Amino acid sequence: MVMRWFKQNVWAAVLVTLARIYIGWQWLDAGWHKMTGGFDATGFLKGAVEKPVIDRATQEAVYPNFVNFLDHFAIPNVKLINFLIPLGEFLIGVGLIVGGLTLAATFFGMMLNFMFLFAGTVSTNPWLLLIAMIVFTAGANAGKFGLDYYLIPLIRKGWKRLMAAMRKEGKTHANIDGRTLPR
């Protein structure tokens, strides 16, 4: 009952919209400062590899796979990371503020929050992650007062056309033998 209210009620949509705009501004501001301020993630990435999050009892890295990702992919491709992080933060912020592709923007914002936490940076990440989870849980209601009000029906219509065209060509609902499965 509470979840239905949260996902469908207009007043819940108002509350989620306020939360969405708040975290959107946080992302937009962070991305803009990085894009205009000569952002370089090299020191941050090297620090996260040299001093990973350590389990106090075992003195072992808590997220060894993430440290390996940073060491073997992110650091060698730091120019790509220096481009993607600011642009991603900025676009997440725009998406959340205007309510366009809200759930995608929220998802990618949560992923960035998790990555920063895995690297050992606490800062505002837990707070933003908590608010993002609330927005994400609201589902389509999170974008009710935004571009999603217009975008989601268009996306659904396009998806239905695509599926109908694929069914016509026999590319959907086929099993391993290529025979069409009953619906």
From TrEMBL:
The chain crosses the membrane at residues 90-115, 127-152. It is a multi-pass membrane protein. It comes from the Bacteria. It is found in: Membrane. The keyword Transmembrane helix applies. Keywords: Membrane, Transmembrane, Transmembrane helix. GO terms for cellular component: membrane. The keyword S-adenosyl-L-methionine does not apply. This is Crp/Fnr family transcriptional regulator.
